[in-house]
Design brief:
- The protein has a single domain, classed as Nucleoside Triphosphate Pyrophosphohydrolase (Alpha-Beta Complex), CATH 3.90.79.
- 25% of the residues lie in helices and 36% in strands.
- The longest helix is centred in the last third of the chain and has 16 residues.
- The radius of gyration is 15 Å and the shape is globular.
């Protein structure tokens, strides 16, 4: 079995669904380790692409099948290395202080989420509530892009 080598690249996946009323709702997750609200978050392992990482992390954290349609958003951000667990980043160059983050979305309208132990809570929210709950401004921008694409019909895969 190949050992997992954590690369200095992060992903964030924003699950969404269309409600019976026809509105879009966004799934936010409250982390068990620090209580922040965000989407699915994780790091690239070995030689994965960012999309492969998004699929793996969504499966690990919520049970979302990897064959679902994951949408790569235009949003890119950076975050401080200090937000990554030391054990995962101990092999990185000590001069590396900022980690790139890539954003994705996945439609889970007819799928029942299975919350992993990484999270203590989850909540389906309208855009306004999700925007208020998200901890990081960069996550709010990713949510904004997704909401714009969904409400204007400019979504792509």
């Amino acid at each position: 079995m190949e050992s997992q080598i954590r690369q200095p690249i992060q992903i964030l996946v924003l699950p969404f669904r269309k409600s019976t009323a026809g509105n879009f709702e966004f799934l936010l997750l409250q982390r068990a380790d620090n209580s922040i609200w965000q989407g699915v978050s994780g790091g690239v392992e070995n030689n994965e692409t960012t999309k492969e990482t998004a699929r793996r992390e969504a499966f690990e954290e919520l049970g979302i099948p990897i064959n679902f349609n994951f949408i790569q958003l235009d949003m890119r951000s950076s975050l401080p290395r200090s937000l990554i667990k030391m054990s995962e980043s101990s092999h990185w160059d000590t001069n590396l202080l900022i980690i790139p983050e890539h954003y994705f979305a996945v439609d889970v309208t007819d799928f029942e989420i299975k919350l992993s132990s990484e999270h203590k809570s989850s909540r389906w929210c309208c855009y306004t509530e999700a925007h208020k709950l998200l901890t990081f401004d960069t996550n709010k921008i990713g949510l904004w892009e997704l909401n714009e694409r969904l409400t204007t019909g400019h979504c792509y895969s």
